[in-house]
Known about the structure:
77% helix
Amino acid sequence: xxxxxxxxxxxxxxxxxFVLMILENVFPPVPSEVILGAAGVLVAQxxxxxxxxxxxxxxxxxxxxxxxxxxxxxxSEETLKRMIDRWGRWLTFEWDEFxxxxxxxxxxxxxxxxxxxxxxxxxxxxxxxxxxAGMKLWRFVLFTFLGSLIWNGLLxxxxxxxxGLIDRYETLAGYAIVAVVVAGIAVYIYRFVTWKPVKAHxxxxxx
Length: 207
């Protein structure tokens, strides 16, 4: 499994990494930890340039977040509610997750876009309230890029550091990757099944 993943990423190259990082920020089940961890192994093997990978992966993260920022700019909260009612189950996107990100953004301002890049739950969702609040595009791109640059760099370095162990314990590493992917799918299925429409959350919504 490990060798298959590394082969696929190697064949996909930098363009493949760029597309996967966009998807990771638009469609939740795609795990950045697996993508960049494995890419870090390719860097350690001399098959990818670490700096190029770092910049391209971060660019993909920014583009993925710009998708949600653009929706925030274009839509009102009422339109967003209708979108979540229609597509939220498939995106595993709950209304209360948006309101939490919105309230945090209102409380702390633009800098929270940078800080939440290190949060596994709100790092992408905060892009919506940033767009709704009319955050300047250049500030959104800058803070998203800087936060993502740090986070992605840590994931790549982690993959490089573990490259030797993965080579030594390839079977165990393969099981670990499968476990992470299966866990991600299981979480997605759970959130899909337990998803609730907007009305179920509005009672506790603080505007």
